[in-house]
Amino acid sequence: MSDAGNLPRAGDLGLIGCHVCRLVCRDVEAEDAACPRCGSPLHKRKSNSYMRTWALLIAAFIFYVPANVLPIMRTVSLGDVDDNTIMSGIIELWVKGSPDLAVIVFTASIIVPMLKFVALGLLLVSSQQGSRWALRQRSKLYRLVEFIGYWSMLDVFVVALLTALVQFGFFSQVEPLPGVVFFGLTVVITMIASMTFDPRLIWDGRDFDD
Question: Which residue windows are transmembrane per the record (predicted)?
Fold first, then answer.
């Protein structure tokens, strides 16, 4: 038996949710139907959700490669110039006596993006195949991806923080490098991808993509 049970869906009850303010409205079956609260157009499903989410997810992964290969910051201390990638920066934070910050940056910069790629890919593939497996758990996974997306910018904030530390004398100079731009693009695009994916497709399977 499916974990969704035999409960009716919103469409069966003549209801439709607003994509913007989340108000549950009566489905009036009109092309120009609008939300009575915010005035946004009402749609049963986000248009071309699969195609747009896949495109954004692939683009984010492409940007994630140079984000890890290219240096994200340059530190100059006592004449010693170091260009650090994400991983080398994490190692340097650990060696310089900031293991807590190193763990936080590793989690936000390496673990979280990879988990988002895997989670969104899993949601896309399982929904396109019409899988009825773990419907509630997959819906919770989507909400988790949305929640943690905003914390993925932490690595960019760390570079800004290290730059600010110059005035306190910890470093003589800190400069952001191109890698941080690619990482920022990765974070933004994955956030847009999670917003583009329609979680109701988890429950619909193949039937309602548009």
Answer: 54-73, 101-126, 147-171, 177-197
